[in-house]
Amino acid sequence: MNENSPIAARYRLDPDWAWLTSPASVALDGAFTFVHRMSATDVFRAFDIDPGSARLMTAEQALGDPVLRTASFDEGPQWIRVAESGDWTVAVEYSQQKTHVDGVASHLARDTEVVFVAANEGEPAVINYLSHGEYVFALECGAPYDTRGGRRPRLFDEEMSEAGLFDFIPIMPIGDCVVAMMAILGRHLGFSLTPETVNGPLPTAYRMHLYTPPNPPLRVNPQAGAEAEQSPKPPPSSPA
User: Fold this and answer.
1) Domain range spanning residue 48?
2) How far is the C-alpha of 101 from the C-alpha of 231, rounded, in Å?
3) Which of 225, 175, 199 is nearest to 17 (CA)?
4) Domains of the chain: total
5) Apex CA 149: angle with CA 85 and CA 184, to 5°?
6) How far, in Å, CA of 154 to CA of 28, rounded?
7) What is the pLDDT of residues 155-177, one digit of tens each?
8) I need a surface site. Which of 94, 115, 136, 213 has the fewest CB within 10 A?
9) CA nearest to 68, candidates 213, 210, 209, 208
10) What angle do CA 79, 112, 24 make, to 5 degrees?
11) Which bin fits 183, alpha (ψ -120 to 50), beta or left (φ > 0)?
12) Domain for residue 230, yes or no?
């Protein structure tokens, strides 16, 4: 479907997500990570940040903070703000993409669902959907070719076609693609986010050290334990 059709426009101008392309948004220069049914405390920990150090700050206060404002993509404080929206918790990164670069999203998605969008200004925006250890779907918004990936790359084909996301000449603007894709994912998975939430007071914290991935969970085989309990024990040794 042509991206200029009325149906496609409904995706690109979706009222719940159009704000992502506003100057105040970080969708095109930073990252949003949506995590299903996980506390803000656990999200901070997944980013290797002490949740006890978090302070309530608005976006304006955080971006003007004398420490946080020294952060760059790789250097300085690595920081996030964490919001809660229904059953989803959202980590917001400004000019950083640790969810993608450090693989934080993969660790978060071991036992739940995770969606993230990450972009640098002028480069394609990366959108991933992960679920319970599975790399389900991926897309690069702004690429001049088909970038669908993951275990189920055709999962959203019907809606993507309606939104004009398969029309590569001319290339859909990155922001329009991000809005359309987040509208599609939000409807399928049941998450949303408002600019008032993102810009309002949120717990904000940082770390100065390099990211340390969490230890892999200990895998216990309950069947092995049951077999051990059922195996015959050797008879007691006879007294000398």
Assistant:
1) 6-211
2) 48
3) 175
4) 1
5) 35
6) 24
7) 999 999 999 999 887 788 899 99
8) 213
9) 208
10) 35
11) alpha
12) no
